[in-house]
What we know:
Number of helices: 14
Number of domains: 1
Oligomer: single chain
Amino acid sequence: MRAGRPSVGLLPWGICFAVFGLFPLLYALLLSFQDMNPLRPDASHFVGLANYAHALGSPSFWHALRTTVVFVVGTLPVTLVLAYGVAALLGRIRRAQSFFRAAIFFPATLSMVVVSLVFKSLYAEDGLMNGWLAASDLARVHWLQDPRLALPSIMAMDIWASVGYYAILLLAGRKTLPVEQLEAARLEGLTAWQVERRIVLPHLQPVILFVVLLNTIRSFQVFIEVFVLTRGGPLESTLTLVYHLYERAFYHFEMGYACAIAYLLLALVGVVLLIQRRVLRSAEVAA
C-alpha cells in the first residue's frame, strides 16, 4: 500500500471540514469587524474593533454573560458528582447491567428539543410537577414564569439530561482499572472508601478532566433549552450569551455584532478550559 493513500482517504472529511467548519469560522471572524445587515448587504462596511467595544460596553452582554456563568457554575459540579456516583453504582451492579446502562444513557440519545418540550409540559401550570404539589396539599409553583425559578428549572433539566452520558464515560474509565489492583488493595485491608479515594479516583483523573472540559463547553453553549422553554424570560432571567447572540443576529440583524459576541465567547471558553486543565493536571500530579 502506498504512503499517499491514507491522506486521499481523508480528503472527503477534509473538504467537509473546510466547507462546513473552517470557512464559516473564518467568515464569522471577518464579519465581526464589519457592520453588516443581511437585509442590506450592500451597506456593509468595515468598523474595526467597534463591535467588540460595543459588546464589552453593553449591559445586556454582561447580564447574559453573568447568567451563563451562573448556569455553568450551577450545573457543572452537580452533574460531575452525580455522574461519578451513578458510575460507581453501575460498576457494582452484577445483574441486568446492560439494562441499567441503557436506561441511564437513554436521555443522552434524545434530542434536546424533545427533552425541553417534555419538561415544558412538566413545568406547566397544570403540569405533572404542580399536580404532585397539589396532591401533597402544597401551593402551585410558577416554574418558568417566576424569575427566581426559571433558570434553576432549566438547570435541573440540563443536569437530568446530561448525567447519564457522563456517567457512562466515567464507567468506561472505571472498567480500565486492573482487577488485580483492586483485589490487592482489599487484601491489604483498605475499606471501600479508601479504595475509591486512593486508587479509583486517581485512575479516573484523565476521564474526569475530559468530562469537565466537555461539560464546560456544552454549558457555555446552552441555547436550545432557553429557546424552547423561556425565550430568555421572564424579565431576561434566563438570557444566556448564546441566546443573546441569536437575538442580535436574527431579530435585530446585527450580524457583525453577533459574530463579535461569538468570538468573545470563544475566547472566554478557551481561557476557562486552560485554567481547568491546569488545575486538574496539578491535582492529578499531587495525587
